[in-house]
Amino acid sequence: MHPSPWLSLHGGRVFEAARRWGVAPDQILDFSANLNPWGPPQSVKDAVARADWTRYPDDTALRAAFAQRHRLDPAAVVVGNGVAGLLFDTLRIWRPRRVLLLEPSFTEYRRALVAVNACLVTRPLRPEEVFQPDFARLAPFLREARIDTVILNTPHNPTGAAYPPDRLLDFIRTVAQHSVRVVLDESFADYRPENSLTQKAANLPNVVVLRSLTKFYTMPGLRIGIAVAYPPLAHELRRQTAAWPVGAHALEAARAALEDDAFATQTRARTECARRTFAQALDELGCAVFPSAANFLLLRLPRGSGADFARWLEAHRVLVRRCTDFVGLDDRYLRLAVRDEASNARLVALLARWLRELRASSLTNS
Fold first, then answer.
1. Chain centroid to CA 112: how far?
2. Do 93 and 237 fall within a single domain?
3. Residues 69 and 198 in one domain
4. DSSP string over 209-240
């Protein structure tokens, strides 16, 4: 049985854990939130310090900067209060009746669908297929199930799977012929930019691409996201968003982040190296580690449960993300953020110790 769709176990609850454990937040090692451990860049910190918050904010400069980076018409770009906020806004415009979700999936999708009274239809992403959808079979299923909207996510949260962009684009164009619309969540696309369909979205009337600026640049406290859509659709979406949805500090931070090419290049290289080493070490402990194109790994423990491991880690002031609120994943699964090499090595050592204690306990009780 899965929890109610509006009761989520979102990661990043550092302040809550700090209060519970009676420690300062900076004493907690957080693997539960998918944030870049090497950010935010100094350019972002400087921009926040310079921001003029004595006037109403204007997102024109940020839309122009994002459009220039992705070779888009600024009219196709919408700035909003995070990806979740833009998702709610998109669904309020479309008012979908029957929506397909491939699960497991980001838990906010279900909350957004409840808010617009949409009928939810699901299809499983299977671990034996490394959580890749079969787009060739999916298209005819949409017609049979009378689906009018699909929500997709690549690199996929919580699995890290990256969908082949050519197959994904063919799918979007195919379903457009049957008036099916697509929300494409690319919150982690900065880790695999060559797979992104952001630029294509501006010419596809049936798709909205959602992009996050907070995870890659480590500024989750500044709620800001960007949607890209066919300009007439983007215009409708802009009309739907609340007045001044993003404050001056967030706008300046986001613009500085987009201009910091050196930070982006370095982050991708460091994350790939750290992710590969982390995944190999977890595999050597007997975990099933799934391929990832993002800054996190989905794994299945060789024994024990995520709940037991999370409780055991409390004494070490470490947070991990259990997966029991992701439909299709049981409590043997964990999603772990890729952090710096020293932090990753510490978690591997703790997991090895916990697994040894479990093994010793089972031998004693047998």
1. 15
2. yes
3. yes
4. EEEESSTTTT-TTS--EEEEE-HHHHHHHHHH
If pLDDT is split at 50, 70 and 90, which confidence band does 366 have? low
What does pLDDT average to over the chain? 94
In a domain, 6, yes or no: no
Total domains, the chain? 2
How far apart CA 181 and CA 196 sit, in angstroms, is 18
Q: What is the largest CA-CA distance in the chain?
A: 70
Taking the C-alpha atoms of residue 171 and residue 189, their distance in angstroms, rounded to an integer, is 19
Q: What is the structure's pLDDT at 103?
A: 96
Q: pLDDT tens across 264-274, in order? A: 999 999 999 99
Rg of the chain over Cα atoms, rounded to whole angstroms, equals 21
State the Cα–Cα distance between residues 190 and 101, nearest whole angstrom.
23
Domain boundary among 203, 227, 260: 260
The SS3 assignment for 98 reads strand
User: Using the 8-state DSSP alphabet, how is residue 74 labeled?
Assistant: G
What CA–CA distance (Å, rounded) separates 363 from 359? 6
CA–CA distance, 120 with 114 (Å, rounded to integer):
9
Rounded to whole angstroms, how far apart are CA atoms 319 and 13?
9
SS3 122: strand
Cα–Cα dist 248/318, whole Å: 34
- 51, exposed or middle or buried, with CB in 10 Å at 0-12, 13-18, 19+? middle
**Residues 300-307: contacts with CB under 8 Å, at least 24 apart:** 300/127, 300/332, 300/333, 300/334, 301/332, 301/333, 301/334, 302/355, 303/355, 303/358, 303/359, 304/332, 304/354, 304/355, 304/358, 305/331, 305/332, 306/331, 306/332, 306/333, 306/334, 307/331
CATH number at residue 107: 3.40.640.10
Identify the domain containing residue 356 by its residue range.
Answer: 14-39+262-365
Residues 54 and 28 in one domain: no
Judge if 229 and 280 occupy the same domain: no
pLDDT for residue 5:
37
Q: Which of 234, 260, 286 is the last residue of a domain?
A: 260
